Amino acid sequence: MQKVRGINGSALKVMAMVSMVFDHGAAVLLGLLLIKNGIYDVGNLSPDYMRELLALGSPGYLYIAYQIMRRVVGRIAFPIYCFLLVEGFQRTKNRKKYMLRLFLFALISEIPFDLAFHGTLFEWDYNNVFFTLLIAFVMMYLWDVIDKKDLGPVRRWILYVCIFVTAAALGEGIHCDYGARGIIAVALIYLFRRNRVEQIIAGCVAFLWEITAPLAFIPIAFYNGKKGWNLKYVFYIFYPAHLLLLHFLYLKFL
Questions:
Q1: Cα Rg of the chain, angstroms
Q2: Neighbours of 88 (CB within 10 A)
Q3: 0.85 cut: is pTM over it?
Q4: Cβ neighbour number for residue 55 with a 10 Å cutoff
Q5: Contacts of 20 (CB under 8 A, 6+ apart)
Q6: Which residues contact 77 (CB under 8 A, 6 or more apart)?
Q7: Of 213, 205, 236, 189, which is closest to residue 84 (Cα–Cα)?
């Protein structure tokens, strides 16, 4: 049997999971260590500020590690998940079951998410990424329903826009991870799905707000369309599990 070149879907999932661990590990653990060392302004990336921190020794190196883990390695995960969501939407045999899985794991993941990032069982001001993926999936589902209707192009696009605006507003309204930006990213990746080059360009544009996130489209460019290993539930389980582990490490060592 001839070996298929490129990167399969399972390999992309593994890359995204590794990236996510770096991102969340930095946010949950290194972020607290920085605060304990008196460094609160992690959003300041000016050269003068970094030189000032590096002069402090260990806290400065911790700050650099935090930025690399979050802003370089950690930014690769979400674009890959957006791309795989679009692929999953097109390939799944049962879209309603797919939506149900997303909804169930959104509920299951909320307590681990709140524990990891807020240290409390319930925090309604910011919700986990499964809600973002669920809203985006429903948006694509409704768009597909419209595509199958005998509608004129003007009515069709009016409905497209109404569904998109509602989805983006809902993402912002329930304060889910990435909010409207996540919905916009999935929308663009879906709309340009028929041409990989155009899809990658659209995806990069969607993530220009995070300068390193478009790096995720390098492995996506080598995606060979194959499923790979059977990892259907690995990501679903891994997401709340790794958040609980990070919370445990936080309680144990920090």
A1: 20
A2: 19
A3: yes
A4: 9
A5: 74, 77, 239, 242
A6: 16, 17, 19, 20, 23, 216
A7: 189
Residue given tokens 């000016």 in the structure block? 46
In the block, residue with structure tokens 């790794």: 242
Q: How far apart are CA 47 and CA 29, in angstroms?
A: 24
Packing angle, helices 196-206 and 179-191, rounded to 10:
170
Closest by Cα among 28, 26, 36 to 58? 36
Determine the length of the chain.
254
Q: Which residues, other chains included, contact 83 with Cβ-Cβ below 8 Å and sequence gap of 6+?
A: 12, 189, 203, 216, 217, 220, 223
Residue-wise pLDDT tens for the chain (254 aa)? 445 689 999 999 999 999 999 999 999 999 888 988 888 888 888 888 888 888 888 888 999 999 999 999 999 999 999 999 999 999 999 999 999 999 999 999 999 999 999 989 988 889 999 999 999 999 999 999 999 998 888 999 999 999 999 999 999 999 999 999 999 999 999 999 999 999 999 999 999 998 899 999 999 999 999 988 877 788 899 999 999 999 999 998 76
CA distance 225 to 16: 17
CB atoms within 10 A of CB 127: 20
Cβ–Cβ < 8 Å for 27, 252:
no
CA gap 226, 223 in Å, rounded: 8
Which residue, chain included where needed, has tokens 């445990």? Answer: 248
- Which has the closest alpha carbon to 122: 110, 105, 130, 109? 110
